[in-house]
Amino acid sequence: MLFLPRMLLLGIHFILVGLIGLVIGLCRPFNPDNSRLYARLYAWPASWLLRLEIKAEVGPLFDQPPGCVIVANHQSNFDLFVLGHVVPPRTVCIGKKSLGWIPLFGQLFWLGGNVLVDRSNAYQARRALQTTSRTLQKDTSIWIFPEGTRNPGEVLKPFKKGAFHMAIDAGVPIVPVCASRYARRLNLNGWRKTRVEIRSLPPISTTGMTQQDIPALMEQCRAQMQACIDLMEH
Question: What are the tens digits of pLDDT across the range 101-110?
């Protein structure tokens, strides 16, 4: 019964934030703090409309100075409204190139200084990773979903190497961020609240690491995140 009016209001909200954000982006294009501001504008009203009760324990994320790689689990398209509550200052995101074609949102993504990657073009993908490595050295953090795709399941998918390549190349720490499994509990047709927990884990140092350390680093990060998510579900 609530599904259609809720989706209509979310659509209106999405357009309004897009218009407001476009003005902000044009006034200060590519400012690395635009993404945090956009994330809050999207998340605050949308979490009320979706009846999301957000509990965030992200001290390690905000204690870490800008200039790190943030990795998070990716459950659904609603992650913007969930994780948008905890995007720290001076943080940009890596997304697939097709995001740039979404009206208003794509323009905000670009004006926020975020990086669009064409996964079908290996050369362009490498160029994008080089760009993000330089970004990290400018006291700006990179937010990435290492699974590479949406995953509402209980077990994290194998991580892709890009985030870990960037962290080691730039010599910066990795900060894992975990969201509890909300996607399958979210009731778009009801008014009961869905509780979502978000926790950040202590930074993982990459000092002294080389590309040969990537497999072990990936597994360490994935194991810590999986344990955290499992703990939040009990």
Answer: 888 899 989 8
